[in-house]
Design the sequence.
């Protein structure tokens, strides 16, 4: 593809959401380090929101910590556990365990439904776990 076509395609991609009145993209960050504790990754929203994805990074010296992610949309609750021993590890640098972006499609289509995402350190470890969420509001 020619460079001028790439620039034109990029410009169109940037304009289409604004022309369509699309929601704004938001990012949330949370850090959890204490065993058996819970923190908000996305505090309860007051509007219909759409969860796009979640990513977590575990340190190379992870001491058995796992993170349980709980997604609440309206009255529906789903949860899963990320165990860093099942993740890819950096080959250089700090040797952290990376989840990469875990895609979601939790649409905010029901009237008066809220989105809430929490992290819970389910393991006995006290490693610092950093997580991010991408969502539309």
Sequence:
């Amino acid at each position: 593809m020619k460079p001028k076509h790439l620039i034109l395609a990029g410009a169109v991609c940037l304009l289409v959401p604004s022309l369509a009145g699309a929601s704004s993209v938001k990012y949330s960050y949370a850090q959890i380090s204490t065993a058996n504790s819970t923190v908000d990754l996305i505090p309860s929203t007051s509007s219909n929101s759409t969860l796009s994805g979640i990513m977590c990074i575990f340190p190379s010296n992870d001491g058995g910590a796992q993170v349980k992610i709980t997604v609440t949309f309206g009255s529906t609750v789903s949860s899963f556990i990320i165990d860093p021993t099942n993740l890819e590890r950096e080959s250089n640098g700090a040797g952290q365990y990376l989840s990469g972006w875990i895609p979601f499609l939790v649409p905010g289509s029901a009237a008066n439904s809220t989105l809430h995402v929490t992290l819970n350190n389910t393991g006995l470890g006290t490693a610092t776990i950093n997580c991010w969420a991408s969502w539309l509001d």
Observations:
- The longest helix spans residues 3-19.
- Residues 1-20 have pLDDT under 50 and may be disordered.
